[in-house]
Design brief:
five-stranded parallel beta sheet, homodimer, 2 domains, alpha/beta, six-stranded parallel beta sheet, Rossmann fold, 17% strand
């Protein structure tokens, strides 16, 4: 990093387009919390999921057609996605027979666990034998460039947060969907592994080498038509002691025209970091705008996304109305949708005066 | 990153202590600019360099004893360090005979080029045959933790900058040396590959995966005696479109009690980024203090380090006096040393009132 001029010439990385549609594998999962990836795919990429496939021990279903790998292949599936996590991130032996069957029946395997699929010798050998691919969405593309700082064409929105794990991905997905419903040309851009599975492309920014993180963010939302919106999934928080660097690289590389601040009302301490206070919404807006101006001087905050899953509908509505008044900005819970979400979308795409 | 609780349990990484002392290899270098690493080692780790070793074509010397690998080994050397760079970062074929000789004569090889030593089959085979190590200082230690945000004991100083490549490493080295000369218990902590070679330990922060960058910075300056100072080599700049994320992770993980802002008077645009203005010193102080308070609320700016290598002694002195008055902070050029440097050291270690 000490001498940018000495950086070897960058090569444009290959796109990470995933084989689709998917068969969603649920393993032997007994609690829905461990099937978040599968539920996310069902909710946000339903048209690209031909069915689900589970071991007899599984206690969780998605409501999709139950298909064997062979049936899924016949229905057009091109890959089996491991849609469940387990403690430690390993692939248990009980999963091997169904995964091997999927390879034999013509499906690629897609995983995002701590253990890479290619680290399992039986899977590696079977994939080679059947001419199938093992794709780990934790692996970023090779040959990412360092950031150039060059302003790109098209419009960009970035979801930012007061903490991790409070709805930045779902907010971006919801806003992209609501934009398209409003007739706006918009794409969701995934910066994390579940998002990559949903979008079928993107990259896991947290796995990129630090020097290339802003460059990866630039690569994620390339030049586009002047009226096109990229809605970019945020990561971490500028006020997080472990992940602020990732958040800043994503902010700088995204060059957002608009940010939406994601927040969970009532969360007082950073998740997993007792004693570390969640910053205020105002502080989060101010910090993101101040730092974001470096690569887009026209950056503005379009509004706020609340995760109100722990509140009743009435409580949520009252709180969002009060906070909207206090902050002078639209506030919506994208999962609840409705007029509040449409107002937030309008605030995102309006041309600032 | 979306769920910190799911992060696998961290294992403390092995220390990256390098085998020392060194024999410095100059290859066939004809211009001093390509031997910066060797000069840095000579200037800052002279007592750990037994000699230099070059091909007959070389036109650059360090003024150290010229030794063969065998002679260096007899003089106590444990490793040959590749102290030169060449365009493209490859290891030319003409270097292979001397490098193979060094392995045969009992030296480990240490490199930091773009091409990893272990990627060269002849070196890999010879190292295995002779039981020697090939060490790449571009490789960070394995199993780095994510940052905890926990405040560590001991005192820390971080050099920060208005841009890349303007003296953050030399400032940290100079301050650590001047502190020790003033009787203060101080260590230089290296965050880049040349610094790692000089210190004989540390890590190349720019090569760490983004999610672990702040954790790597925490690991770099562990708990210490309350009166001990770690003087940490800074990286990049918070106002750099490509590297600000690395700088922020280092700032958060370092938890500095004091920062020293490094600046090159007269530099108007970021190196290699035409059109991107160098931020003011005041903006750089303010941004670092604001963001640094997250992990150390007591952070303060102790003073400024100027790189005045392009000015005369008189010009430099006048400029530093004027800027010191304007900013109300000590300003020194560590390479020029003198009373200004001692005043900067006093400002670094003074207990704020």
């Amino acid at each position: 990093m000490s001498n940018p001029a000495a950086t070897p010439a960058s090569v444009a990385p290959a796109s990470l387009d995933l084989p689709q549609p998917y068969l969603l594998f649920l393993g032997d999962v007994v609690h829905p919390a461990f099937a978040k990836t599968a539920f996310g795919l069902r909710d946000w990429a339903r048209e690209r999921c031909v069915g689900e496939y589970a071991l007899p021990e599984a206690k969780v279903g998605l409501g999709l057609p139950a298909l064997t790998p062979r049936q899924a292949r016949d229905a057009g599936a091109r890959a089996l996605v491991i849609g469940v996590a387990n403690v430690g991130g390993v692939i248990p032996d009980t999963w091997l027979p169904p995964l091997l069957q999927a390879l034999a029946d013509g499906l690629d395997l897609i995983g995002g666990m701590h253990t890479r699929l290619a680290e399992v010798p039986m899977l590696r050998d079977a994939a080679a034998r059947h001419g199938r691919r093992l794709i780990d969405v934790r692996e970023p593309p090779a040959a990412l460039p360092t950031a150039s700082g060059r302003k790109r064409s098209g419009k960009r929105l970035l979801t930012v947060g007061t903490d991790c794990a409070l709805g930045k991905k779902y907010t971006a997905l919801s806003l992209a969907r609501a934009m398209r419903e409003a007739g706006i040309d918009a794409d969701f851009r995934a910066s994390g592994q579940t998002g990559v599975l949903i979008a079928g492309r993107g990259l896991p920014l947290d796995a990129v080498v630090a020097d290339f993180a802003a460059g990866a963010a630039e690569w994620l939302s390339p030049d586009a038509d002047s009226a096109h919106w990229d809605v970019i999934e945020g990561q971490g928080s500028l006020s997080h002691p472990a992940y602020a660097g990732v958040s800043l690289a994503l902010l700088h590389g995204s060059q957002p025209d608009a940010i939406v601040v994601c927040h969970e009302p009532g969360r007082r301490e950073l998740l997993g970091y007792p004693g570390h206070a969640v910053p205020s919404i105002e502080e989060t807006i101010d910090l993101n705008l101040r730092l974001g101006r470096l690569t887009n001087p026209a950056i503005r905050c379009a509004g706020i996304s609340f995760n109100t899953s722990h509140l009743s509908a009435d409580q949520a509505q009252a709180l969002m109305r009060d906070e909207s008044q206090r902050l002078g900005l639209p506030v919506a819970d994208p999962i609840r949708g409705g007029e509040a979400l449409r107002a937030l979308v309008r605030a995102c795409v309006e041309t600032p005066t």
